[in-house]
Amino acid sequence: MRVKICGITQPAQGRAIAQLGVSALGFICVAASPRYVAPAQIRAIVEALPPEALVDRVGVFVDAPLEEIQQVVAIAQLTAVQLHGNESPDGCQRVREALPHIELIKALRVRDAATLDLAHRYAPHIDTLLLDAYHPHLYGGTGATLDWAMLRDFDPGCPWLLAGGLTPDNVQHALRAAHPYGIDLSSGVERSPGDKDLGLVERLMGAIAQLGRQESGSTAQDDFIGARSPENRE
Ligand SMILES: O=C(O)c1ccccc1N[C@@H]1O[C@H](COP(=O)(O)O)[C@@H](O)[C@H]1O
């Protein structure tokens, strides 16, 4: 199970969260968000990560120009880009061609079942799909949940991440209902926007490991936690 914790703003918290065994850290590159971090600050967080922590570094953008995305990737040493706005499949393809070695994640904000039908149009142009809850005024980090039952058989044709209002308390319920290859959390593991609660991240990892043990009948958590970006582009 790939676990991405998004909205990291502080080097010490990025480092501590990486040491808890998450697969990816997310950085909000959207100036209007209370979780915004400037590229130089992301770089400082990345440089503070323990060298042994193999953690993906994801920049989150909303309808940003390609040149801006390229600049931030270079300055901040990102390994992945998450497009969280109204980017089209063609727009995703342009980012993919400009940044061929960077994982491309496209977020769809799910308003109803019709949004899920769009997924197949994106799959050929991206590495990973992410489903977040729809909010009329905000792009993300809202804490609103999806209808997980609707996602029971969801298969977009590429790996997908479940986001939207996940917490240590509801993650097992969500993962029994839907079957993503990974999850993404922001507000469910923080004290206030951008200030992560390490205790909640620890509880989250415990809840996922417990579910993995229950489902496999094993005592090892490694099979269930820790997958990094999909190697599906060769
Ligand atoms: O977190 C933000 O402020 C944000 C701003 C703009 C686009 C995306 C943003 N966050 C993404 O929101 C989802 C889920 O958040 P939550 O767990 O419901 O709080 C996650 O994918 C973040 O990357």
Q: Which whole number gives the mean pLDDT?
A: 93
Q: And the CATH topology?
A: TIM Barrel
What is the name of the CATH superfamily? Aldolase class I
Dominant shape: globular
Structural class: alpha/beta
- How many structural units, i.e. domains? 1
Question: What is the terminal separation in angstroms?
Answer: 22 Å
Bound heterogens, unique: the ligand O=C(O)c1ccccc1N[C@@H]1O[C@H](COP(=O)(O)O)[C@@H](O)[C@H]1O
Q: Please, how many helices?
A: 7
Strand order of the largest sheet: 1-2-3-4-5-6-7-8
How much of the polypeptide forms β-strand, as a percent range?
A: 15-25%
Low-confidence stretches: none
CATH class: Alpha Beta
The tally of beta strands, per DSSP, is 10
The SSE string, one letter per element, is EHEHEHEHEHEEHEEEH
User: Architecture, CATH level 2?
Assistant: Alpha-Beta Barrel
Q: Tell me the quaternary state.
A: single chain
| Amount of helix | 25-40%
Radius of gyration: 16 Å
Main sheet makeup:
8 strands, parallel, barrel
What does this protein look like?
Belongs to the TrpF family. Keywords: Amino-acid biosynthesis, Aromatic amino acid biosynthesis, Isomerase, Tryptophan biosynthesis. One of its GO terms (biological process) is L-tryptophan biosynthetic process. By secondary structure, the chain is of the alpha/beta class. It has one domain: TIM Barrel (Alpha-Beta Barrel), CATH 3.20.20.70. It contains seven helices and ten strands. The protein has an eight-stranded parallel beta barrel, surrounded by four helices. A two-stranded antiparallel sheet has the order 9-10. The protein is globular and about 45 Å long. The mean pLDDT is 93. Bound molecules: ligand LGQLAAA5. The site of the ligand O=C(O)c1ccccc1N[C@@H]1O[C@H](COP(=O)(O)O)[C@@H](O)[C@H]1O has 27 residues, from strand 2, strand 6 and strand 8. The site of ligand LGQLAAA5 has 27 residues, from strand 2, strand 6 and strand 8.
